[in-house]
Specification:
Mean pLDDT: 81
Strand content: 35-45%
Strand order of the largest sheet: 1-2-9-8
Shape: elongated
Number of strands: 9
Structural class: alpha+beta
Radius of gyration: 18 Å
Helix content: 10-25%
Distance between the termini: 57 Å
Low-confidence stretches: none
Number of helices: 1
């Protein structure tokens, strides 16, 4: 009986961790500059070859990243997420047939996305 309870607690903690890392992490800044939407994401500790950026539909940006578990002896230690999945609804449509660029430097991913028209925000 106790094993069943402990497994269920472990399962729920894993689900909550996944929800947290998929909604809160990574911190993302977004701004418009010169007809481009600039998206900056903190992805410290991920290898460049383990990061994937793509556009889904007309204006959804999807960022995924995976990290290998670091084994030390028979235990593993990690203080950062092993997997990131972030889907962001962009506030403007991506220009068709445009060149989206992504640069990863010092743990920061910078994505430049050409957009159609300027973004306007009405403040009430």
């Amino acid at each position: 009986m106790m094993d069943v309870i402990m497994r269920e607690i472990g399962r729920r903690i894993n689900e909550l961790s996944k929800e947290f890392y998929e909604t809160v992490i990574p911190p993302i800044d977004m701004y418009e500059e010169g007809g481009e939407l600039i998206v900056v994401a903190d992805l410290a500790g991920f290898s460049k070859d383990k990061i994937n950026v793509r556009i889904a539909g007309e204006n959804d940006l999807i960022i995924t990243a995976n990290r290998e578990i670091e084994y030390i002896g028979t235990k593993y230690y990690t203080q950062r997420p092993l997997r990131i999945y972030k889907r962001i609804r962009l506030p403007a449509k991506v220009k068709k047939d445009s060149q989206i660029t992504a640069k990863y430097e010092n743990g920061v991913l910078t994505i430049r996305i050409p957009i159609e028209g300027a973004i306007s925000v009405k403040v009430e």
